[in-house]
Amino acid sequence: MSLPIYLIGARGCGKTTVGQALSQALGYAFNDTDHYLQLTTQRSVAEIVASEGWDSFRARETESLRAVTAPNTVIATGGGMVLAEVNCRFMREHGQVIWLNAPSDVLADRLEHQPEAAQRPTLTGRPIAEEMGDILRERAHLYRQTAHHEVNAMQSPDRVVEQILQSLSLARAS
Ligand SMILES: Nc1ncnc2c1ncn2[C@@H]1O[C@H](COP(=O)(O)OP(=O)(O)O)[C@@H](O)[C@H]1O
Ligand SMILES: O=C(O)C1=C[C@@H](OP(=O)(O)O)[C@@H](O)[C@H](O)C1
Ligand SMILES: [Mg+2]
């Protein structure tokens, strides 16, 4: 039995994409807190936020984190998971936490190509490039202090997976 692996980081850093590939590489299950929420509520993130507001979405997100936590599982979290200290503590106590780090211009570029508006309603009302700059300024310290390992997310998904595996095996060996 191995501890769950949590992927954290801002929108567009690749948590969902890399998480699926990492789970296959390890032979683990895969889960995603946003997918879990969509499945259990039958609503998109945008619909939940529009009808209940962000505070309610954040409360549901905390419940999802607990619900999807299981051994031998890779868990892609939503970008705002670290906003609640209780979530940060929970992830550090229950598994290995990996931060997929990329600069705001790279994130904005990915999100402009693949906005997935139902999954990512605006956080600030500002244009995406400015929004991602604001978000990283606000959250970078939370990602940094919550993560056991930081990985450069500006590489191909396969390379990111390799780097994560390397970080985890080095951690096990030491
Ligand atoms: N390492 C990567 N290199 C290039 N594009 C990526 C990478 N990881 C993810 N993407 C692309 O960026 C977008 C957001 O990826 P996603 O996995 O949904 O990110 P997150 O779950 O962190 O918001 C998708 O279009 C995806 O194909
Ligand atoms: O950064 C955020 O606050 C959010 C990121 C989204 O997930 P991804 O990071 O998977 O896009 C989703 O949870 C929601 O729109 C809020
Ligand atoms: Mg995602």
UniProtKB/TrEMBL annotation:
Functional pathway: Metabolic intermediate biosynthesis; chorismate biosynthesis; chorismate from D-erythrose 4-phosphate and phosphoenolpyruvate: step 5/7
Entry's EC annotation: 2.7.1.71
Catalytic activity, as annotated: shikimate + ATP = 3-phosphoshikimate + ADP + H(+)
One Pfam family cited in the UniProt record for this chain: SKI
One term of GO molecular function: shikimate kinase activity
Subcellular location: Cytoplasm
Keyword Cell membrane: no
Keyword Nucleotide-binding: yes
Top-rank lineage group of the source organism: Bacteria
Residue numbers binding ATP: 12-17, 120
Matching HAMAP family: Shikimate_kinase
PANTHER family: SHIKIMATE KINASE, SHIKIMATE KINASE 2
NCBIfam families in alphabetical order: PRK03731.1 (NF002988)
Primary role: Catalyzes the specific phosphorylation of the 3-hydroxyl group of shikimic acid using ATP as a cosubstrate.
Assembly with partners or alone: Monomer.
Protein name from the UniProt record: Shikimate kinase 1
Taxonomic path: Bacteria, Pseudomonadati, Pseudomonadota, Gammaproteobacteria, Enterobacterales
